[in-house]
Amino acid sequence: MTGRVVSYFEGNESARTPALLDALLAGERVLLVTDAGMPSVSDPGYRLVAAAVEADVPVTAVPGPSAVLTALAVSGLPVDRFCFEGFLPRKAGERSRRLAGLAAEERTMVFFEAPHRTHAALAAMAGALGGERAAAVCRELTKTHEEVRRGPLADLVEWAAEGVRGEVTIVVAGAAGGPDLDTDPASLLAAVAALEADGTSRKEAIVEVAKRAGLPKRDVYNLVHGG
């Protein structure tokens, strides 16, 4: 039995999927392999799987290393409920808005990050979620130089300031039940101002802060506008 190897990556995934689907429909077998990580999880694969399912072609998986599950297992954080957030946006404003939307998330969160952006990502997390929030930075999982750093986000920001190498997975504890933000006027106004400074509209900032503080939107609106 002979086979051939073809490249399949983000740049050609859309263009190459139809030909691979034609091969499947012709009775051939297509094996999708990644050099690291799990296909379809921040790696190519979703489009091909979706196309195969739509065409009623059988799809199966051979379990392999997954940075998401491995990081959860070694993080020391609760794993009974978790969510995978993938890579954060590269732009600071978009990243801050994404994290602000996760401030009240009670499930343990898993993120992927590039090594050169890890310090900035951790700093943004500390700013949006609180420096005391427990987290773990997992580096080079299942490889020779595997390293796991655990602690409050503030401590991890300090650790990452000198630079981080290798593939990085960050696990962050979910929010405790109840309001995520102090409800005193100064804290509410500061939170709205911080979101606005990162590019969020005032209307969206008021909605987000009210949600985090567990308050009616009208209360925060009146505070901001002096009502």
Q: How is this fold's topology laid out?
A:
Blueprint: H1 13-25, H2 46-54, H3 67-75, E1 82-87, H4 92-101, E2 108-113, H5 118-129, E3 134-139, E4 147-152, H6 153-160, E5 168-172, H7 185-197, H8 202-213, H9 217-224
Parallel strand pairs: 1-2
Antiparallel strand pairs: 2-5, 3-4, 3-5
Helix pairs in contact: 1-2, 4-5, 5-6, 7-8, 8-9
Question: What features would you describe in this structure?
Answer:
Helix content is 41%, strand content 13%. The model has no long low-confidence stretch (mean pLDDT 89). The chain is α+β, with helices and mostly antiparallel strands and 227 residues long. The radius of gyration is 21 Å and the shape is globular. The protein folds into 3 domains: 1-64, no CATH class; 67-172, 2-Layer Sandwich (Methyltransferase, Cobalt-precorrin-4 Transmethylase, Domain 2), CATH 3.30.950.10; 185-224, no CATH class. β3 and β4 (147-152) form a beta hairpin.
* Number of domain units: 3
Compute the CA-based radius of gyration. Answer: 21 Å
CATH topology of the largest domain: Methyltransferase, Cobalt-precorrin-4 Transmethylase, Domain 2
Average pLDDT, all residues: 89
Counting copies of identical and different chains, the oligomeric state is single chain
Would you identify the CATH H-level superfamily of the largest domain?
Tetrapyrrole methylase, C-terminal domain
Q: How large is the share of residues in beta strands?
A: 5-15%
N-to-C series of helices and strands: HHHEHEHEEHEHHH
Strand order of the largest sheet: 1-2-5-3-4
Structural class computed from helices and strand pairing: alpha+beta
What about the largest sheet?
A: 5 strands, mixed
